[in-house]
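Slide 14.
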Amino acid sequence: MSDYEDLLDYRRRVAEMYAQVRASRLDQPARCAQFRQARDDVFRHHPQSALTDAQKARFQRLSYYPYDPSLRLAVPLDPMTEAGILDVPLREEGLLQLRRIGKVRFSIGGRPLELTVFWVLGYAGGLFLPLRDATSRTMTFPGGRYLLDTIKGADLGKEGGRLVLDFNYAYNPSCAYHPQWDCPLAPLENVMPVEIQAGEQRYPDAEG
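Slide 15: predicted structure.
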């Protein structure tokens, strides 16, 4: 297949993984375990994996925190009246523009928190939720992680009209594995002063 066909197949695989999570009748920890196993398989074998061939040859598994059911939330998306646009310069793709479309507000460990939810501007667009928390100092990627990126199929859906935020699915951007990738990272407004001990941890075999 061509590189573009490989990329299309990769995005289909990712979208199918999230669709299986949404449709599954397994309990939440079992759904997450199944998802993580599928993600390991994509990283190990797929031509569009974020890993280089050398990294794939050494690959064992991605590192995750144990599933924490308390970090699966369904929250309303509160619209922002004065949205504004965040400009993110990327090395090869130029300027990425993210429109602030709302806030999600929740509590973790009794501490009230909020995150800005973005819409990627451009043809079709998509919902995007990057974040960074205090684990980035030691256990997770310093640039933060992604929770939702609907352009790439990373979408946990809604429950009762509310957006599902399951931090157990927080995952690293591609640049966490190798500097050949250029990724939009979590802006200051989405840096949380708490540890979110859930989701993917720092990749031990990262290059660069």
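Speaker note: Helices lie at 3-23, 28-45, 53-58.
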